[in-house]
Protein 1
Amino acid sequence: MNTAGGKLTLVATPIGNLGDWSPRAIEAVCAADVIACEDTRVSRKLLHHKELQVDAEWISYREETEHALANTLSEKIAQGAQVVLMADAGTPAISDPGFRLVRACHSRGLKVTATPGPNAAILALSVSGLPSDRFLFTGFLPPKKAARLRFFSEQLNAEHTTILYESCHRILKCLEDALEIFGPARCVCVARELTKLHETITTGSLATVLPLVKKSSQKGEFVVLIAKLGYELNP
Ligand code: SAM
């Protein structure tokens, strides 16, 4: 175990392209005493792709186990361990487990750092062509239609771009509900399979984007962005 002073490092991992894994991220993983990750099989595979050999303790860190493990892991850090936290893909603690461990470390005065990298929401915002000066990121919407409609109603007069994650099973329902609340002229972007082979970024009014998404494959991962009220693509 490293006795130079323990710390927690949040390590961002690729969201679709292995080339996006940074040298600093790899260095942190190789130096880890403990690797906490959602699915150890997914993270081991990532290391295997990069031909990395690590001699670390692996711990499965999921939403269900987060409460208990935040304590265990922060105790290991207090004793000098280099702990790395990884999500299956993207940035830990962003629509993924992590914040409780960070909070536990802060409350014990332990060092927390990160090797920043891919995040689907920020990437989608940057390539969307929608205003990026003010935005609200809301993660996944509730699965129930009534709750989704309520959320969209709250965003009707928004002065910011709204960013949300959506699953392939609900992408059409999500856009249909958005049409119901925002109307056909509201500008949106649907970003699918970012950084992957079938990356598709579709920006336009809901009236044009919804039929395009319906016509194309709905497999894969999606970020949906909704422009602020009154935003026009080609003023
Ligand atoms: N922590 C991750 C991050 O930093 O982006 C997000 C994890 S969240 C559990 C997974 C969701 O992120 C997916 O359901 C999808 O909405 C979005 N996502 C992840 N990878 C994506 C990609 N390559 N293209 C589009 N959306 C993606």
Note: The chain has a mean pLDDT of 95.
Protein 2
Amino acid sequence: MKLVPRYTEIADQFAIADMPSPVSQPSVLLFNDALAEQLDISVAPENRAMVFGGNYIDPKVGPVALGYSGHQFAHFSPRLGDGRAHLLGAVADQDGLLWDIQLKGSGATPFSRGGDGRCAIGPAVREYIMSEAMHALGVPTTRCLAVVATGETVYRQPPQPGAIVTRVASSHIRVGSFQYLATQGDVTSLKALADLAIARHYPHIESTGSERYLAFLAEVIKQQITLVISWMRVGFIHGVMNTDNTLISGETIDYGPCAMMNQFDFDTVFSSIDRQGRYAFGNQPNIANWNCARLAESLIPLINEDDEQAVAVLSPLINGFAEQFNHAFTQMWAQKLGLDGHQDSDTELVAELLALLSDHKLDYTNTFNALTQSLEGDEAIPTELTQWSQKWQQRTYASSYAIMRKANPKLIPRNHIIENILKDFNQKGQSAMLSEYLQALRQPYQQDANELWCTAPQDEENYQTFCGT
Ligand code: AMP
Ligand code: MG
């Protein structure tokens, strides 16, 4: 694996040199051959446990822990940072694009604040399943290259075996990374970070001066909208959309408390700590908008020496979020329903459907899949929707099936299925079911998936997810 250093040029306190803590008995649990091939990563199978367990470090490229701030549930923490992750560096793929390679669960860092720097096996495997499923669903996301068991115990309730996830991302620059440098008043580093993010993700931005950073913000807004739209298209609830978990690239990161929605309801929340529903399914666009506003605030020193004048030019971008989002949201529903062109009455058609879904507690994924397959005569429309569907059918046309098929998955990584697979895996230390499931999740739009994996849970009232496990 040919690594190059990343972020070390920004500022000393931004990327702090730090070594993973070696683990006693690393063994590879999961390895993503397809991703390794795509990224041109060749590490011989017998060396993978040492490399992706953090025991072997390339002597030429030192690992770093990145600093970042974060608004966590709207409360600002100036110094969060990688408390349990080490960035090994970046690799170039066949097209010359760089990908960050990060170990998560690789030991304490200067940012750990009393945490143990470790990760339990369950959440590690869950992150692998979720992120690979999201990738196959067409949602922008960080990826997982490997999960390595450490052979050590992590002290959670109850104690569990430890694991290290190798995360791959087009960058680890977060909204919180900008907040970190802005809070320290380090404008030189702030500018360097913005220029790095532009070069990495938005290289078409050629303007200079304040225009450059306004264009940057506009791009980030666009990508955040694309991201949240794709989450909502497949029923994903991120669960912890703090500014430290919001990547400038618009990729999904941090799979701790996420979950897929079963029954349709905009108010759905699974995270045990999200008592106010801040990160509920239907509130995700508002929060993405709020997070973009925090990025805009951090960019003020790059826009104008006079704060008021800076705010005057940044605000219209933030205020334009909602309209841009609504336009994309309307398009998303039109695709999910295969609508022919646009008519004013479509808004009502969608609203009526969503009201029926939530009144009758219908499963989001299975309903849209059934509507799609009904056009081919393969599935019946749920009886609760019979009357509504007569109006809908008048709005479909020759291309509806093809469009809907791409927008509506059959197989999503459902919470209760993952729980069962993790149980099986924990009991046996491996699981044939897990490999089969991962294989199936690679083709979520195909109709031949195991029906058991597509079945909605009987009861999910008590299902909860947890952060920082
Ligand atoms: P998260 O909830 O994963 O977004 O994490 C929030 C912050 O807590 C980040 O700074 C993490 O690095 C840190 N953190 C989470 N778990 C641990 C842990 N086990 N040890 C040290 N730091 C942690
Ligand atoms: Mg995080």
Note: The mean pLDDT is 96.
Protein 3
Amino acid sequence: MKKILVTGGLGFIGSHTVVELQNEGYEVLIIDNLSNTSIDVLDQIESITGIKPTYVNIDLRVQKDVKQFFDTHEVDGVIHFAAYKAVGESVSKPLEYYQNNLNTLVYLLGELTARNIDNFIFSSSCTVYGQADQLPITESAPVKPAESPYGYSKQVGEILIRDTCKALGLNAIALRYFNPIGAHPSIKIGELPLGVPQNLIPFITQTAAGMRKELSVFGDDYPTVDGTAVRDYIHVVDLAKAHIAALGRLLQKENKTNYEFFNIGTGKGSSVLEVIKAFEKASGFPLNYKIVGRREGDITAAYADTTLANKELKWKTELSLDEALDSAWKWQQAQK
Ligand code: WQD
């Protein structure tokens, strides 16, 4: 049984990927310092799959602890989620973001290459494109100057990996996520935003649950179908399955070059108002919202061209926006 290390494996996307890895028969080890999640997720994963992953509480910023982990554990591959991801927060805390998102990656890559551990999957983001000139966005779209330290940390992360693959023979795939949303159909794992949610869907569900007074829609003066910004909202379970496909490509040595990257989205754009309307259908009642000014750093529109992932990873989304919103609402209602 192949052993896969999942860093950030108790987080939103990490936990859903751990479930899919176990479903595929992989043995999973998780490193998570619980800085943005809860240890309860470990039991919830076990309650879904019946298998409790090995869990180690390590802070990847402590290089000696990263080395110590690999001195004591054998792995066949690594899926690296552990990072800070709040765009707005990164603008006010750049050093924390560069330390946590980049130092950790350097330490991790150092251990993998020192021990000839191949097969590295990196959690990247459509944020690397900024506002693309053409839509849908293909992998050949230029990477533009980042609008935030978070976005820059993903761009630099990809370059760190690319150069390591070139120089030291690592095989890696970066997955550029669009907007992950929703929850596992078991409603035992989902998005657990700490504090006031930055992202649209958790803010919508918390508003519908009465935890927030109303949703502020950041701008309705964009050049889009209804003036509100457009994004590609992908069900987190479909996103998790893309990692299984990417891992299989590396383990079966089907990769064409030793560093590849793929856009992981639905290929469909939805505006904020279209998402609100779809959510109201899922919940069965109107959502409280008001239109306010644009949010600093937001782009007008982003949605993926998924041709390359469909073809090379033999992966495509199977779940709809409605199913994602329905699961997000059910997950919210299940919270204490
Ligand atoms: C979506 C849309 C907002 C909140 C994020 C991450 C990015 C990547 C993808 C990880 C935008 C609008 C939001 C609110 C609103 N994730 N909005 N009111 O900014 O597209 O990107 O997910 O890699 O790194 O930042 O997602 O959910 O914040 O915003 O109107 O209260 O919803 O303006 O148009 P975003 P988001």
Note: The first strand starts at residue 3 and ends at 7.
Protein 4
Amino acid sequence: MAQKVLIVEDEKPIAELVRFNLEKEGFQVETCYDGQEALRRVQADPPHLVILDLMLPGLDGLAVCREIRKASQVPILMLTARADEVDRVVGLELGADDYVTKPFSPRELVARVRAILRRVAAPRAEEAPLRVADLVIDPGTYEVTKAGRRIPLSVKEFDLLRFLASRPGQIMTRQVLLDEVWGYQYFGDARTVDVTVRRLREKIEDDPANPQYVLTKRGAGYYFRKD
Ligand code: CA
């Protein structure tokens, strides 16, 4: 069955360009041109992935992302024409899974979409859940529970947690994390890692200011606690 992608972009030529390239690759594509409509569609008929432009009339992309994340962990790929770091970081901070800056090559965009969907839709079922302290990290379902309670994480937060937790005590520099968790085509900077770690801590730690799972090695990077 074709995977469904929802494009949210008011610039119709761009929306059509993206649609054309995704349909060519066998995706089922829906397009909408404003944020309110996007929220309605995500709720009524959840897609496998949302491509969300930052600049939208009315409810902008950041607000839409925030609203979607209140109820759904659907993967979100942000589009932005504003290449400054703040927007990139804010986008990820709100729970987007990745971003592409305009102008983008359709090929790169399709590659990103595939990479995100591969992580979600084709989980490595043979991988056993990772159990550390009261956390259970399940690569088969992309779920994390803490003391039996499910913790909703974005794909990136999950990937980062899994990467660190499967190597307890090993200090990872931000560059290593960018390479390993964000992947070969990612153009983000080290702050992207810091922001994702902060979001992750807010979700999994009892006291995010005094973390017990994902720890900082000052001047070096991050590591998962070693019991
Ligand atoms: Ca736009």
Note: The mean pLDDT is 87.
